[in-house]
Each structure stands twice: as structure tokens, then as C-alpha cells.
Model the fold of this input.
Amino acid sequence: MKCKFPISFQSALIMIFAFVLIAFTPGVLRSQTEKAAIRGTVERIKVHGKSLEGNLEGDSPDRDVSVYLPPSYKTQTNQRYPVLYVLHGYMDNDVNWFGEKHAFIDAPAAIEKALDAGSREMIIVMPSAYTVYFGSMYSNSVTTGNWEGFITQDLVLYIDSHYRTIPDRMSRGLAGHSMGGYGTVRLGMKYSEIFSSLYAMSACCLDFNPTAESPAMKKAEAIRTPADLATADFGTRAMIASSAAWSPDPDKPPLYLDLPIADGKVQDNVAAEWEANSPLAMLPQYVTNLKKYQAIALDVGTKDGLMASIQQLDADMMKFGVPHTFETYDGDHVSGIQTRFEKNVMPFFSKNLSFGTDK
Done:
């Protein structure tokens, strides 16, 4: 399936970069005095990813993971909880959501406001997917490592064995923003036996149409070593990270990847690899899996450069009869994440996850 959209993949990345720069300016960060008192507990742990061992990118298989434990977790010691796994975006990490520094969202504050408004308590887990190339794309590659396996096997098994979870797919949800939204759609399609509900926020990278004239592609061709990325812009970094995830090449050190554009020309075989990792192309293969979900939700801001591709995902899911909801809101790619997590994401999983019975 080949879809054409009014805005290119590369142009959307540039727009996202502009939003990221704005969001990370000091005026956008919440001051310590504005932070609400948190009744739950946030733990930052290390989880070894056997699936990530030996990755050519050189990332550690021992990953930082933030775990939010709800207010009653330490006092109601016989109670078990469903788990929501949340995936962050490109060049982001779990600390920006659950630590002291909040670029887009103070996740614990959003969670507890949602609890105060009636959402039910759950454990919430976010792994750091910040890598040598600034983001894993939550994909399976010899260069980046098998991030699909890390999320759906290594991480889930660790959380179930170390915390009082309800170890059942009906009690597991998956959500994410931007690159994390892509990961939510991708993993959701392939692992319906692990999760029962999905919420993709402003999902990126749903389709790819290679453009030889793309400035980001041209700049990516000039990157020769991982060290060159230190001064590269967002779009160039994203091209390298995406290539590492979707078109790895173990015979091409030190980056170990193939670009979809080489010498100003589209490389059809590499472009085909990218297309095979595009959820819009993947969707027809996984309709049966998607129909197993308790609930699926998509959202996007009306000023987001990714809106057209997410609208296409909505249309394709309707065409194949996949039950889901799709909502637009007034905002760009990074606006309103805090509010939407509080008022949309948390109530969605509170309604759709199974909370079992206390044992």
C-alpha cells in the first residue's frame, strides 16, 4: 500500500523539531513551586534486556526504567494492579516524564490529578529508549537491538516478577507519544497476546515516501560516524536513527545502516525496507490482531504536521473494520500532552483495562 500525503515525512520531522526546541526552552518547564505533591511513588530501576545484547549501535542492554506505583501500593499489600506501559518520543527519555525535569509533561502530577477525578489506580512503566542515535524507534534491528523483544518480553516479564501486577493481557495497556505513538501502533499490531488496549498520541512515521531532494537526507549522507551526530540537527539525527532501525547493514561499520537515498537517488531496496516498517503498509497483515483489542484510541492536534498520516490510519482502520476511536484537538505536536494524559489517556485505560480482584 502506497499513500501520498500533503506533507512529507521529512517536512513533518522538521516541524516536530521546531516544536521540540520551543518545548525545551526554560519558559516552558514547570518550576518546582508549581509541582503538585505526589502521593504515589516513582522508582527508577535498571532492567537488563537480553533482546538488546550485542546490538551493533553499542547501546547498553541495561536500560533505565521509570515505574510509577500508585498511592495505595505500599499500604494495600494484598492488592494487585494492571500495568500501563508508556513509550516516549524521539530524543526524549523517561526522566523528562517522571523525573525532576519536565519538558512536555509532569507525568506523576497528571496521573494523580486523573486519580482525583475518578481514574483507577494502576502501575505505569516507561523505559528509556534514548540511544546512541537518540531513539530506538521501538523496532527490531541488529544495529539497534530487538526493541520489540525488550518491551514485550524482557520488560513485561521483569515488571510482572518484581511488582504486584495482574499478569494478564487484559490488564496490560500500551500508550505512547510521537515515536512512542509509532511504537504503540507497531507493537500493538504484532503483540495482541501481550496487550489489550492501545492509545497512540500523535504517532509519527506511519508512512514513508523517499524524496531525493530532502535536506535531511542530504545531510544524513554526510554523517560518517556516530560522533558526527553531536552537531547534527533533529531531522538528520532522525534519518540516521530510522535507518539504523529499519535498514540496518552489519557490513557497513561504523554506523551499520543503509540510507534510503544515496548519491541523490532513491535506493529502491532500502526504501522497500522502510515501507515494510510503516504501519500503514503493515495494517492489512494485522487486522485479525487489531480486532482482538478491548479498545484502541488515536489522537492528533489540528496543527500537527502528522495529521494527514494519522487521518489515513483512521480511514484504513475503518475500511478494515477495526474498532477504534479517533480524536483531533486544537494543538501542535507537543502541546497539551500533560492535559491529554490526565483527561484522556488515564480515563481511557481506567475504563478498558481489567482490574481483576484483590487476592
About this structure: The domain at 9-351 is CATH 3.40.50.1820 (Rossmann fold). Residues 147-162 form the longest helix (16 residues).
